[in-house]
Design goal:
Annexin V, domain 1, 152 residues, calcium ion binding, 2 domains, mainly alpha
Length: 152
Amino acid sequence: MESVQCAPDVVPSPREDAEKIRNVVQGFGTHEKALISVIWHRNTAQRQLIKQAYQELYNEDLIKRLESELTGDFEKVVYRWMHDPVDRDAILAHAALKNLSQNYKILIALVSTHRYDGSEINASLASSEANILHDAIKEKAFNHEDVIRIFP
């Protein structure tokens, strides 16, 4: 579910993008337009490489840094955009489950439109679903009989 983006003619290296993001988030305030100019003009694979380069350069998780610098809806958008599509869908499904009465349409759309293919996607999906199930059990969202019914 990748969006159409206007990419620059020459895409900077992930290292250059990581350095630019670091400059944007350092100091007082965050320059949202500068952050948008990097993140929104890269595809999923490029954003993953930027996250990796940021980690290597600064020994810091880029997503956690962005979460600490941003607020409100912009933080939510950036947080979700920085994940690959499978993880983003899992995040949205988890958020929808927390307030099911208001978000059931989102959950139905995610579940009914997602296609599972490829072992990498299945492993990622299984990990995300296991985390959601773990959190639900930890928060006692299900009783023991419901949990047993989940596993055939």
